[in-house]
Amino acid sequence: MFDAIPSNRREDARSAMTAAFGRAPLTALQRVTSGASALIYRIEVADRPYLLRLDSLQRDEVRNPERAYLCMRTAVEAGIAPALHHADPTAGVAIMDYVPERPLSDYPSGREGLARDLGDLVARLQATPAFPPVANYLTVLNGLLDRLLGSGLFNVGLLDPHQEGFERIRQAYPWDSSALVSSHNDPHPGNILFDGERLWLIDWETAYRNDPLVDVAIFTLYLAASPEHEEVLLQSWLGRSPDRALRARLVLMRQLVRLFYACASSLHAASPSAVPETDLAALTPAEFRAAVDDGRLVLGAPQTQRIGGKVALATFLAVLATPQFEEALVVAQQG
C-alpha cells in the first residue's frame, strides 16, 4: 500500500504510523486531496479511518510545521480541530481523526444557524492561548502583491489600481499588534468540515497570531455573505451588536483577505506558458460559487484557481469604487 506514497516520503509515513499505532495493521490507504503544499491520505488502521498528512519539505516563514502543529494541538484541545494522534514537525507528518463530511447545505439550522455557529467557532478559537506570531499580515500581503505585480501574469498597469487601493487601506487600517489573537487565516469552505452534528476546522499550516477580523472577514466572504447572515455571525462572535468602527474595519479587512486570495490563487495557478491577462473580465462571486457547486469548476484545479483569482481581483476593484468603502476608510481613520 505504501507504493501510493512518493518514495521520498514513505519512510516518514511508516515511522509516523508505527509511532501512532504500533504494530496495528494498515488495512487501506487512499489519496483524498492534492492540497497546495501537502499530500493527504485516508488510511485505515485496524479498520478504523484516519487522515495522514505529509507536509511539504520546503519551509518558509509562514509554512512551518513546527508552528502549524502547535496551533493544531491548541485547536484540538479547544475542540475545534479533529483529534491528533501523531505530529512530527521535523519530518512534516501528522495523523489525525478522519471526519466523515456532509455538505454545509445540509446544515440542520440552515444558513442562519451556520452563520451563528461560525461566529461561535471563531470566538472559541480566539479565546485559546495566542498562537505564535509571524510577520505582520499587511507585510505578508504586500509581499504577495509585489510578487503578482512582477509575475508577468497581467499586463503592465492592469493591477495598478489594486496596489493603490491596498496602500489606502494600509494607511487607514488601525493595526494593533497588542490585540492579535489565534487565527486560522484560511477558513474557506474547503477547510470547514460538517460531520452531521458540528463543525470542525482543518488545515492549520498558515495559522498564526493575527488581527481578530481576518477569520471573520473570510467567513463573510464565503459563508455569511448576506447582510442578515453577517449580522448573525458578528452577534455570535462578539456577544453584542458591533459598533460603527468595527463594521468599517470589517469592510477594509474583507478587501485585504480578498486581495490575499486573489494573489495566492493567481500565483499558484501560474504556468511558464501563461499569456498575460489583458483585462479583468470575470464571473461574479455568486456565479463562481455556482460553477463550483455544480461541478463545472473543480476546487484546487489550476484553471479554477486562475478564474478565482480574477474573480477576487475584479471584486476588489468594484468595491473600491463604492461609497461604503470610502466611508469605511474615513471611519477607520477616525478610530
Your description of this structure?
The protein has 335 residues and is α+β, with helices and mostly antiparallel strands. 46% of the residues lie in helices and 14% in strands. It is built from eleven helices and nine strands. The strands form three sheets. Strands 1-2-3-5-4 form a five-stranded antiparallel β-sheet, with helices on both faces. A hairpin with a 4-residue loop joins strand 1 and strand 2 (38-45). It is globular.
**Low-confidence spans:** none
Largest β sheet strand count, sense and barrel closure = 5 strands, antiparallel
Q: What Rg is obtained from the alpha carbons, in whole angstroms?
A: 20 Å
Helix and strand element order: HEEEHEEHHHEEEEHHHHHH
Q: What is the strand tally?
A: 9
Strand order of the largest sheet: 1-2-3-5-4
Shape: globular
| Oligomeric state of the chains in view | single chain
Distance between the termini: 58 Å
Which range does the strand content fall in? Answer: 5-15%
Tell me the helix content: 40-55%
Please count the helical segments. Answer: 11
Quickly give the structural class. alpha+beta
